[in-house]
Amino acid sequence: MTDYDTLVVERVDAVHIKVRCERSTAMELHEHFTFMVPNARFHPLVKEKVWDGKIRLFNLGSQTIYGGLASAVEEFASERGYQIQYKTPLESISFDLHDATQFCVDLAAKGGLTMQPRDYQLKAFSHAVTNERCVLLSPTASGKSFIIYLLTMYYQKKTLIVVPTTSLVHQLYSDFQDYGLDASKYCHKIFSGQDKESDRPITITTWQSIYTIKDKEWFKQYQVVIGDEAHLFKATSLTKIMTNLTNANHRFGFTGTLDGSQTHELVLSGLFGPVHKVTTTSELIEQKHLAGFKIKAIVLEYPEELKKWAAKNLKLYKNEIQYVVENNARNEFIKKLCLSLKGNTLVLYQFVERQGKPLYKKISDDGGDRKVFFVHGGVEGKERDDIRYVVEQEQNAIIVASYGTFSTGVNIKNIHNIVFASPFKSKVKNLQSIGRGLRKGNTKDQAVLYDIVDDMSWKSRKNHVLNHFHERVEIYNSEKFDYKIYTVKLGA
Fold it and tell me: Range with the lowest mean pLDDT among 22-26, 202-206, 323-327, 387-391?
């Protein structure tokens, strides 16, 4: 073994590591850590031949790579028989399950913890502290905000917590208050129009509010960074924020699901750390931490003449989806379904003008004295939080909300029914939306998802949204969800 077979790894800052090696080995690393972005061919820059659609994680010029990919570099070296030498050791401490438990006991004794952590939360907390950086993969409603709170209390350092929406800023602030922290004293919230300067130790912000900050010194004040719902961060914005945090050696990303692409996982791992699976939805349901859950897929079978017409006129997905969400008979069915359900119901739609507003009007006009709320991107985060609070006190309310506002992170324990009013195939959006109904409440131990499906297949041709449903079924099977499929003739 010669020096030519050795990779010398040293820490550049909290973001990057440098790999000193021969030029030929650097070329290998560059090729190994180059990936095609999924669906890149549809990107305008690729169409204009400005970008080739690839992400290159190893910088050939500086020979640097994200620090979170250190283990991936080790794997690269091992596969090729190269040795690894660390000029600067990577961070790791001993913080086992006993230490995690004792920390919580001590924090509770000081009045800083009002609830008992679950076993898997303690294990996740222990893993994060031990490894200094990681992505914790834990399903919706597993209590990610509680693990975030424990990490924040443990480090007692200037901490930046980044979330994707204003409503999640308010919710996490409220959660910290519930867990035992005087949030008004220790937390500063940043969202649209709010002051970005504060001497409080904890900053909770949307990524949209800080990615345009040009002063790099602002980022250097933070020693801990936590990204909640990390899968939703716009790639370029996340990269810009995380690479500016050169003093944040403690990095933790939280997500309920990854989209399955290698590129997505490696970028998150590079910026935060290796992915660690905390638990699964089926395990949490089995352990009674989450509400029981079942899926009723309602396949709307369109009339034969309409199927024939659709096969000829709705060949493109954009045309089919527009027809589906604007279909009056379909929206009438959804209205009747929602008004027939007992308990609080969350109706998720995709297009505000095309479906959200008409559906809300239908439900509210015929809903009698039932409280019906309408939520979309134009509704302020504080107002959404107020709606969330009201619904927690109700037993028969209906929320008509866009996927973008209520499918992710919003904590409503008192949701009994979820209706997918708009069709889609995204694994991330699917599991995040399902999570809205999994939290247990005082009056609820069971939730039902109504997955509305449109069958416009003609002869051997399967329509787009029906194919998307088949992809959702694969997700239901992989997650071990209990589901049944029902067929209803549309307009019958």
Answer: 387-391
Say how far apart CA 321 and CA 165 lie, in whole Å: 26
Q: Up-side HSE of residue 207: CA atoms within 13 Å toward CB?
A: 22
185, pLDDT greater than 50: yes
CA dihedral 177, 179, 182, 185 (to 10 degrees): -80
Burial class (CB in 10 A: 0-12, 13-18, 19+), 201: middle
Task: State how far Cα 405 lies from the chain centre.
Answer: 12
The mean pLDDT of the chain is 88
Give one DSSP letter per residue of 154-220, joined into a string. HH-S-EEEEESSHHHHHHHHHHHHHHT--HHHHEEEE-TT------SSEEEEEHHHHTT---HHHHH
Residue 396 · residue 342 · CB < 8 Å: yes
Amino acid at 261: S
Q: How far apart are CA 392 and CA 20, in angstroms?
A: 56
Q: Are strands 133-137 and 275-277 parallel, antiparallel or unpaired?
A: parallel
In the beta sheet, which residues pair with residue 420?
348, 451
Q: What residues form DSSP beta bridges with 444?
A: 441
8 Å CB contact between 140 and 432? yes
432 pLDDT band (50/70/90 cuts)?
low
DSSP assignment of 253-275 equals EEES---S-HHHHHHHHHHT--E
CA pair distance 342, 361, nearest whole angstrom:
20
Query: What distance in Å separates the CA atoms of residue 2 and residue 285, rounded to the nearest whole number?
Result: 54
Separation CA 30–CA 27 (nearest Å) = 5
Q: Stretch 97-114: mean pLDDT, rounded?
A: 96
Residue ranges of the alpha helices (H) in 327-457?
A: 328-340, 357-366, 381-393, 403-406, 427-434
447: pLDDT strictly greater than 80: yes
Going by C-alpha positions, the residue among 481, 486, 428 that lies closest to residue 453 is 486
